[in-house]
Design goal:
The chain is of the alpha+beta class and about 350 residues long. It is about 65% helix and about 15% strand. Strand 6 and strand 7 form a beta hairpin. The radius of gyration is 37 Å and the shape is rod-shaped.
Length: about 350
């Protein structure tokens, strides 16, 4: 509010300095016997008096006529209101010149009384041009600010919609992850495995991360990598020696920010449609490369060569939608031909904002 008041005061000060400077030369008299400072004093005193007419006229248009007419697209009504205000302002300014400024500030007779009809006509035209130019410039500035405000509100609405959809997607992803991990615990418990307590501890740590750290729109890449490693440890406990899994990370900056739980669904998918459907030895290979903000993430897993490519589950569908919202330039390749399935993701994190 203080900034807004200062902007308005600055506008009127600049206008008064400019228009007051023109008042004496355009008055129809020369005042050759007066100094420049005396003439400027007369001009600025006249302008201060005229501002008592101009300021109410401007704010009447800006705050009473313009907003409702513009928002409801009643431009014809706005035009009539603008012209009516200008006409009344012109009459008031012209009258003020004749009745106050000429006799009491300039100390001369009004042009009409001195039989200078052309000077009177010029003063009328100038008064009309003056008020219309002032109303036009002020209205243009007001419309510009209104348009900026509308654009900002639209941007906020889009951002709120985006965040709402992302929260919904993540709310779906977390239970989906929990369901898959509980399946792992179920298999360990059925075998009365000694690894069950370790698995529960790992799961507890991952759930703590999801509940308390994934609320931020961005996390560090190192946090996402640690979650993937914990998940792989859970899977190793489940599958034991028949699982060959490797996770290779090459990152020039593990402090790089990324949307949370964006990579984990691809790893989950490799086990759900690969290792969990294999009765023999199986393998999963994961490779992450980050170089100068460009992230490449590749997940490959063994599968039955006779098995068709599985339909996308809720995890992959959600992560693809998140990629569309957060990283519209992403590239994702899914290939299920032959005896392996691969997912290759490339996204640009170079302009990723901090949370």
């Amino acid at each position: 509010m203080n900034r807004r008041i200062l902007l308005h005061l600055g506008f009127w000060l600049a206008y008064a300095l400019y228009d007051g400077y023109l008042s004496v030369p355009l008055s129809g008299t020369t005042f050759a016997d007066l100094t420049i400072w005396e003439r400027l004093s007369m001009g600025y005193r006249a302008e201060l008096l005229l501002l008592l007419i101009k300021i109410p006229a401007v704010y009447l248009v800006l705050y009473r006529f313009l907003p409702p007419s513009f928002e409801n697209k009643r431009f014809f009504r706005l035009g009539l209101q603008f012209l009516l205000t200008a006409a009344i302002g012109t009459a008031a300014i012209y009258t003020t010149w004749n009745q106050v400024i000429y006799p009491h500030i300039y100390h001369i007779a009004p042009p009409a009384a001195a039989a200078n009809a052309w000077v009177a006509a010029f003063r009328l035209l100038w008064s009309s041009f003056d008020i219309m130019m002032l109303l036009g410039v002020a209205s243009a500035l007001k419309l510009f600010r209104m348009r900026l405000g509308m654009a900002e509100r639209e941007k906020q609405l889009v951002e709120e919609k985006l965040q709402s959809e992302l929260r919904f997607l993540r709310a779906q992803t977390n239970p989906h992850f929990l369901f898959n991990t509980l399946n792992n615990l179920y298999h360990l418990a059925r075998k009365h495995s000694d690894s069950t307590p370790d698995a529960i501890l790992k799961l507890s740590g991952m759930m703590r991360f999801m509940l308390y750290e994934c609320t931020s729109p961005r996390i560090r890449l190192s946090q996402e990598v640690n979650v993937i490693r914990d998940y792989l440890d859970l899977e190793r406990l489940r599958y034991g020696s028949r699982l060959d899994v490797s996770f290779q990370v090459e990152a020039d900056d593990e402090g790089q920010f990324i949307a949370p739980l964006l990579l984990l669904p691809f790893v989950e998918n490799a086990f759900k449609h690969g290792a969990s459907e294999s009765r023999g030895d199986t393998w999963v290979r994961i490779f992450l490369l980050l170089k100068k903000g460009a992230l490449s993430f590749q997940v490959e897993n063994a599968k039955d060569p006779l098995e068709e490519m599985a339909a996308e589950g809720i995890g992959l569908k959600n992560v693809k939608r998140q990629l569309e919202l957060l990283y519209p330039g992403y590239r994702l390749q899914l290939d299920g031909r032959g005896d392996q399935f691969s997912a290759r993701l490339r996204i640009d994190l170079s302009n990723e904002p901090e949370p």
